[in-house]
């Protein structure tokens, strides 16, 4: 009898082993396709890096030229600035033509664009910049550009807005335009009485006596882009901010340089603004449509004679957010449901049953083993 009970025990263990083996044989472990939390922040700093502790950094006291073939992390002008800008310009126009350039054959002169940029920056103190500094550059780079029914703006949602936009193939953000694409993520500042004309060691991150210097490029970029969009536009906002800021701020780029410059009349006027408010699966909800600062924004838009609609967490964006919050409770549930439906499509049944069978067998061993042993 004892031998028989052991045989039953071994059969149960064998069933469990087969079940688990079958389950694990198809289980390839992959890292979550996350956005590293960046969909909850503003424009990423160009000098951010996960390997800061592994890269030598020189400070302002070191006045040497760091662009000498050995990478040294600094807070100054990006090494190879000219070459990067020219390369991006050519790539954008000759390769990335799936944007709003598809209906034109005109190619802008990349050297001319760089010269316009450099003439306003090189040898000139950074804190002397103002909102007119880059005007000729933007007028040339964005000449003839109008984005109709595809313009997307963002605030506190940099990465997810650009992922959803498809970097210009679905929707078009400011950074998807030629003018902004040439400089996105780069740093630069001029330096007087210097052979290079650029400070490659340390650029100011704020100018105490001239706030417009810090806003000179991206402020004008935002305004110029806003003046060239038409039809329905989309604004992706963060409803789960953890920095104490409201979802809509009256000192944000959108409030200062975009909202006031949307066109009301003419063939290239804005007809409707669609607010898309995102709430991170792993954070509490701070604001929803029709509440707090979002209500203020909706009223501002209506008072400006624009139609407005607001939607919390569109389905299309929930999937992207779960890519960043892979282990969040809401995403775990969504993943299981999606896996069940996907397995049914692939195999005609859900492999989720394997998990259930494993649990049943394990539960049966725990419950019935003492009973079997007592009987026999």
What does this molecule look like?
The protein is 41% helix and 8% strand. It is α/β, with parallel strands linked by helices. Strands 1, 2, 3, 4 and 5 form a five-stranded parallel β-sheet that branches. α1 runs antiparallel to α12. It is globular. The relative contact order is 0.13. About 10% of the residues have low confidence.
- The N- to C-terminal Cα distance equals 5 Å
Count of individual helical segments: 12
- The fraction of residues in strands falls at 5-15%
Q: What is the alpha-carbon Rg in Å?
A: 28 Å
Total E-strand runs: 5
Mean pLDDT: 81
Spans of 5+ residues with little confidence (pLDDT < 50)?
Answer: 18-25, 36-41, 45-62, 356-360
Main pleated sheet: 5 strands, parallel
Helix proportion range: 40-55%
Order of helices and strands: HHHHEEHHHEHEHEHHH
Sum up the overall morphology in one term: globular
How would you sum up this structure in a few lines?
With about 375 residues, the protein is α/β, with parallel strands linked by helices. Helices cover about 40% and strands about 10% of the residues.
């Amino acid at each position: 009898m004892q031998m028989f009970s052991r045989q039953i025990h071994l059969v149960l263990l064998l069933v469990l082993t087969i079940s688990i083996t079958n389950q694990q044989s198809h289980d390839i472990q992959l890292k979550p396709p996350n956005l590293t939390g960046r969909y909850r922040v503003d424009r990423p700093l160009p000098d951010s890096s996960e390997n800061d502790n592994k890269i030598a950094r020189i400070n302002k006291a070191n006045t040497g030229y760091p662009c000498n073939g050995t990478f040294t992390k600094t807070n100054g002008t990006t090494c190879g600035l000219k070459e990067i800008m020219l390369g991006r310009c050519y790539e954008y126009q000759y390769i990335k033509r799936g944007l709003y350039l598809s209906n034109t054959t005109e190619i802008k002169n990349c050297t001319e664009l760089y010269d316009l940029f450099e003439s306003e920056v090189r040898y000139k103190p950074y804190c002397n910049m103002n909102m007119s500094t880059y005007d000729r550059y933007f007028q040339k780079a964005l000449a003839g550009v109008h984005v109709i029914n595809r313009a997307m703006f963002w605030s506190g949602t940099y990465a997810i807005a650009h992922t959803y936009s498809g970097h210009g193939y679905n929707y078009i953000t400011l950074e998807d335009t030629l003018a902004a694409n040439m400089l996105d993520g780069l740093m630069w500042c001029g330096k007087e009485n210097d052979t290079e004309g650029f400070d490659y060691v340390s650029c100011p991150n704020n100018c105490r006596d001239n706030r417009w210097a810090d806003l000179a490029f991206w402020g004008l970029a935002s305004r110029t882009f806003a003046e060239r969009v038409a039809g329905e536009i989309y604004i992706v906002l963060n409803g789960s901010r953890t920095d104490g800021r409201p979802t809509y701020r009256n000192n944000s780029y959108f409030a200062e340089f975009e909202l006031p410059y949307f066109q009301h009349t003419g063939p290239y006027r804005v007809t409707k603004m669609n607010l898309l408010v995102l709430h991170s699966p792993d954070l509490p909800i701070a604001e929803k449509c029709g509440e707090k600062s979002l209500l203020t924004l909706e009223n501002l838009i209506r008072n400006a004679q624009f139609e407005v609609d607001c939607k919390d967490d569109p389905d299309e964006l929930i999937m992207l957010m779960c890519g960043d919050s892979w282990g969040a409770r809401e995403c775990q549930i969504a993943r299981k449901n999606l896996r069940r439906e996907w397995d049914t499509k692939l195999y005609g049944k859900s492999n989720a049953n394997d998990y259930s069978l494993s649990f049943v067998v394990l539960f049966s061993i725990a419950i019935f083993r003492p009973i079997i042993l007592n009987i026999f």
